[in-house]
Amino acid sequence: MNQLKLQIGEFSHLCGVTVKTLRHYEKIGLLVPDKVARYSGYRYYSVGQMQKMATIRQLKSLGFSLDEILDLYRQDAHYPNQKLLTEKLVQTEQQIANLQSRRTQLKAMLDSRNQHDKMEKISIQSLPACMVASYKGTIDNYGALGYLCCEVIAPEMQRLGCECPEPGYCFTRELNKEYTPEHIDIEYCERVTEAKLNSDLIHFYQLEAVETAVCYKHYGPYENLYNSYCELFAYAEQEGYQILEAPRAVYVDGIWNQADPAKWLTIIQLPVKK
């Protein structure tokens, strides 16, 4: 009866290993082709070698190295005895213990990093009193803020002769009593050196100082502010603060100086007390 011979590609496909792996196994003497054609150099494997390949894959999955597997076949054992299996089990249990220890250390490091990042996002500050130019109006969504600030408020403040000291300070706060996804009533305030005559769009008043404010750094477009508000209020609750007034969304970097919305920086200031 003729023995069925499989070319290296066929054998690779049926056994689920790469040709590169088979050539390596041949090189180290672990799995040598059953036949190599004299002139073409083609390598052929027998059907019986498929079982050997399956055993090699199983032993590898159990943690045996190629050297250990090769030693087994050199001893004509083909399969580890009770002693070898016991030793491998002890090694595996030690590896598990090492991995659990590493997991504990990594988790502690991650918790520390998360806490550090959280403290970088959140700070406690006092807000000084200042004179502000105030605009009250309605926007369809937070994406409209850029146009409102640059095309409506800024030209009117310039017309009134407003001067804004450095560093600049401008913020919005919502006036709605309940959530609304559109037609958001807001107040926009920007610090100025002195009050000017009120106009139909802009009014001036003295903003009182805030002794304590929990402040949160938000990076990204304004549509994503909601998640940052959630984190900020959760922190305030956790620390036992009472909220005194609506939070201020302070615009540090935005469409006026950053083309990439991911780099827009908004600091949310929440006036509180213990």
- Gap from first CA to last CA: 92 Å
Helix count equals: 7
Largest sheet: 9 strands, antiparallel
What is the percentage of strand-forming residues?
25-35%
Unreliable sequence segments: none
Overall mean pLDDT = 88
Q: How would you describe the shape?
A: elongated
CATH architecture title of the largest domain: Alpha-Beta Barrel
Determine the CATH superfamily of the largest domain: Regulatory factor, effector binding domain
- Report the structural category: alpha+beta
CATH topology of the largest domain: Multidrug-efflux Transporter 1 Regulator Bmrr, Chain A
* CATH class annotation of the largest domain: Alpha Beta
Count of all domains: 3
Please characterize this protein's 3D structure:
The protein has 3 domains: about 5-80, Multidrug-efflux Transporter Regulator, Chain: A, Domain 2; about 85-120; about 125-274, Regulatory factor, effector binding domain (Multidrug-efflux Transporter 1 Regulator Bmrr, Chain A). It is about 40% helix and about 25% strand. The chain has helices spanning about 10-15, 20-30, 50-60, 65-75, 80-120, 145-160, 225-240; strands at about 5, 35, 45, 120-125, 130-140, 170-175, 185-190, 205, 210-220, 240-245, 250-255, 265-274. The chain starts with a strand and ends with a strand.
